[in-house]
Amino acid sequence: MKKIVILGAGTGGTLIANRLYRRLWHQIKGGDIEITIIEPNYWHYYQPGFLLLPLNLITEDELRRPVKELLPEKIKLIREKAEKIDVENKQVNLADGDKINYDYLIISTGSRLNYDEVPGLRDGTYNFYGFDEAIRLRETLRNFREGTIVVGVAGVPYKCPPAPIEMSLLLDAYYRRLGIRDRINIKYAYPLPRVFPIAEAADMLDPIMRNRDIDIHLFFNVEEIDPGNKVIKSMEGEELEYDLAIMIPPHKGSDVIINSGIGDAGGWVPTDRYTLNMEGHDDIYVIGDATNLPISKAGSVADFEAEVIVSRLIDQLNGHTPMTVYNGKVMCFVLTGIGEGTILLFNYNEPPKPVPPGFSSYWLKLIYNKLYWSLTAGSALVEVS
Ligand SMILES: Cc1cc2nc3c(=O)[nH]c(=O)nc-3n(C[C@H](O)[C@H](O)[C@H](O)COP(=O)(O)OP(=O)(O)OC[C@H]3O[C@@H](n4cnc5c(N)ncnc54)[C@H](O)[C@@H]3O)c2cc1C
Questions:
Q1: 138 alpha carbon to ligand 1 midpoint, in Å?
Q2: Which residue CA neighbors atom 53 of ligand 1 most closely?
Q3: For 232-269, how does the pLDDT look when each residue is reduced to its tens digit (9 = 90+)?
């Protein structure tokens, strides 16, 4: 029997589990292949919805499902944390002391928020990069009717690069709807010399933000936040005063990557940009945020990568040389207000050709929010027999 072990049941992990199940159900039912997924959390969250929750554009119930409801019965779920990956012995050590052997390993442990990198970040700011964090921001925004809001990035890397722009533009639209936009000052603080990492997209988004009276502060690398005086200080010597600071913490990789000594300084796994193998290991694949690839950390990336990994793994199981490769494809819906958005499509070689915002991208994103549970996570739940 061949054993496939998946670490983490977030976007990438559940995608791989469901797609492998659809392709290999016969061998799984016959006992030739076993798929195990290791995840300590009870809930699987649909993270793009965290952007909408603070403004009441989505409800909590739409954002989460129990992990076990997203997996076919024949996939074994272990509710435990992986402590160490032992690549020599092809084994994963769990927090409860158990050791799980694998023939093939998929690392889909995502990223986590690193508050400790910036003094004052944890106590002085809000963000929308977690379920509880988004609810906390929603409760604050309910009563926030006057003053300065800073939306910014407190350090790189961070997932979903357009999210801070989207939040600035959604806040603009929200306060215009309430008829009190003139009482709210929105500032955007970003570490790069443009509003978005990719020049083609930045050129389109920058004038939209300026036309909506968003005050843009570029080259703003956060040094510290002083919650007592409500000031954000940059390494470049600039200071931004705020009444409400919505700052995205820098991210780092899962501690299992760091504990296992298989990651770089940020805890990202060195990954072959085409095969998606962990460098030097044909039996280990890496998907989603956990890779060190120079592309956006995004759910769409995990989706495109899952296709490649599933295809390559099945070739390996059948004794064939895997040929499918990843071309760096990324797809981002970017909301530019309530009821309007645009789409960015690009890959390793081709930059995005931005299209002017319209209503269709907004609604496509909202429709996908509902389809996620059947198209992406949980896609094999209509059991094949
Ligand atoms: C506000 C916001 C908006 C976003 N919007 C978009 C968008 O519009 N489009 C888009 O494509 N992407 C978007 N994203 C990004 C997207 O959600 C992530 O990039 C995607 O979920 C990454 O998938 P992943 O599987 O790599 O990680 P995750 O989905 O985060 O899953 C990682 C899993 O690994 C588990 N894990 C970690 N360590 C261990 C361990 N030691 N043992 C076992 N399990 C472990 C975690 O508990 C978690 O369940 C957004 C994200 C946020 C926060």
A1: 21
A2: 129
A3: 999 999 999 999 999 999 999 999 999 999 999 999 99
Pocket test for ligand 1, best of 63, 159, 167 (most atoms within 8 A of CB): 159
DSSP string covering 53-118: GGGTSS-GGGGEEEGGGGS-TTSEEE-S-EEEEETTTTEEEETTS-EEE-SEEEE---EEE-GGGS
- Which of 46, 160, 167, 375, when mutated, tests ligand 1's pocket best, judged by the most ligand atoms within 8 Å of its CB? 160
What residues flank ligand 1, with Cβ below 6 Å?
7-13, 38-41, 47-48, 50-51, 81-82, 108-110, 128-129, 159-160, 163, 254, 256, 288-290, 297-300, 302, 332-333
**Whole-number mean pLDDT of the chain?**
96
What's the pLDDT score for residue 186?
99
Residue 311 domain-assigned (yes or no): yes
Domain boundary, last residue among 310, 328, 346? 328
- Return the closest-CA partner of residue 305 out of 108, 76, 70: 108
* Rounded average pLDDT over 346-370: 93
Q: Which of 250, 285, 310 is the last residue of a domain?
A: 250
Whether residue 379 is predicted with pLDDT greater than 90 in this model: the reply is: no
Q: What range defines the domain where residue 11 resides? A: 2-110+254-328
